[in-house]
Design a protein that fits this description.
This protein has helices at residues 16-29, 47-52, 67-77, 94-100, 132-136, 183-194, 212-220, 234-240, 251-257, 272-281, 295-306, 309-320, 329-342; strands spanning 2-7, 34-40, 56-60, 82-88, 104-110, 122-125, 145-148, 170-174, 200-205, 225-229, 243-247, 262-266, 285-289. The protein is of the alpha/beta class and 345 residues long. A seven-stranded parallel sheet has the order 3-2-1-4-5-6-7, sandwiched between helices. A six-stranded parallel sheet has the order 10-9-8-11-12-13, with helices on both faces. Helix 1 packs across helix 13 (329-342) and helix 6 packs across helix 11.
């Protein structure tokens, strides 16, 4: 079975789209699938990361002005037909998919915007919103099966392993692959300024982080901080941490399945609605938007929540209850295989 992924990463876009596609590709590979990735070679692309994980990359030009141009460039790279196209890209939808159906029998689109018409057989949106079904009702074709909510979250296999014990005073910092606003440095300065006994931190940044060298130099002088770059053991760090300070997006569901309380900063507009709802449910604390953050504010929030163990326990338990143990990536793969075997759902 041949599967084609169309997704991008860049310094400005971040790595989340590519990383969750890699998660799905590894899971599909276990069923016997052969997966290729079609990606634009933008500044900060992750083609080398994709190849290092055993998948072929079909390179696309950096500048593609329209869905039609993107589809034409993609089709020019294809030498065979695919059973499934997995599309994870905010700029691509109906026009792209209609052209790709010449080579791809089924299409699954991963999205969370619900703001345009889709031509797909499966639509995956792992975000949790009270009006999830209604958001997509006017955009999807009649035959499309929507996979909505964190029970369909694409989580790597490591997150389904037994959890370690959360360590008191251990903080995890993670603001995504690129962290354009450099919130990581603010968090490091906040933790250093706390001067609390027994507090340590794991700092996670992506390969695309523009401040990599500065952050490396800063953490090197702080003995209670450990820097991790493009790490593939995030579950281990989450299982060990007592509290996470980071961004929204896919990390919400990694935190939830790890029962990890989170202080969350939204770094993009499309993260706000889900983060606000999770805050309302008691599954995290929404600190606000990136532009409003400061090292002093981070320090105040960390100091307060680290002094509230009962509150952290409650937050972690609430978060853990949002993703059933048998759900997530295995459920997505099961649904895909049923669709491929039985035709349109």
């Amino acid at each position: 079975m041949k599967v084609l992924f169309r997704t991008d990463a860049s310094v400005t876009l971040g790595s989340g789209h590519v990383m969750r596609c890699l998660t799905l590709a590894h899971a599909l590979k276990k069923t016997g699938a052969s997966c290729d990735f079609a990606c634009r070679l933008t500044s900060g692309h992750l083609a080398d990361v994709i190849r290092s994980q055993g998948f072929n990359v079909l390179p696309l030009p950096d500048a593609l002005s329209s869905q039609t141009a993107d589809a034409t460039a993609t089709l020019a790279q294809l030498t065979q037909n695919y059973v499934l196209l997995v599309l994870d890209h905010y700029a691509l939808a109906t026009d792209y998919c209609r052209m790709l159906r010449a080579r791809c029998r089924y299409i699954m689109q991963i999205d969370d915007l619900a703001n345009r018409a889709y031509d797909c057989d499966l639509l995956l949106d792992q975000n949790l919103l009270p009006n999830a079904e209604q958001r997509y009702s006017k955009w999807l074709p009649a035959h499309c099966k929507p996979l909505l909510g964190p029970r369909y979250a694409l989580l790597r296999e490591e997150f389904y392993q037994p959890q370690a014990q959360h360590e008191p005073g251990r903080i995890l910092i993670g603001f995504g692959g690129s962290d354009e606003q450099n919130l990581t440095t603010l968090a490091i300065k906040a933790i250093d300024g706390l001067k609390l006994n027994g507090v340590s931190a794991d700092i996670v940044i992506g390969a695309n982080n523009p401040w990599h060298a500065d952050i490396k130099q800063l953490t090197a002088s702080l003995p209670d901080m450990r820097l991790h770059v493009q790490c593939n053991y995030m579950a281990k760090l989450m299982h060990q941490a007592r509290l996470m300070l980071g961004g929204g997006g896919a990390s919400h569901w990694e935190r939830c399945i790890s029962a990890l309380p989170g202080l969350v900063v939204t770094v993009a507009e499309n993260q706000q609605a889900t983060t606000a709802y999770l805050d309302q449910l008691g599954a995290c604390v929404w600190l606000g938007q990136a532009a409003d953050m400061s090292a002093e504010f981070f320090a105040e929030q960390l100091c307060y929540y680290l002094s509230q163990p009962a509150l952290l326990d409650s937050m972690g338990q609430t978060a853990a209850g949002l993703i059933p143990a048998a759900a997530g990536t295995p459920l997505v793969v099961e649904t895909i295989m049923m669709t491929l075997n039985n035709g349109h759902p």
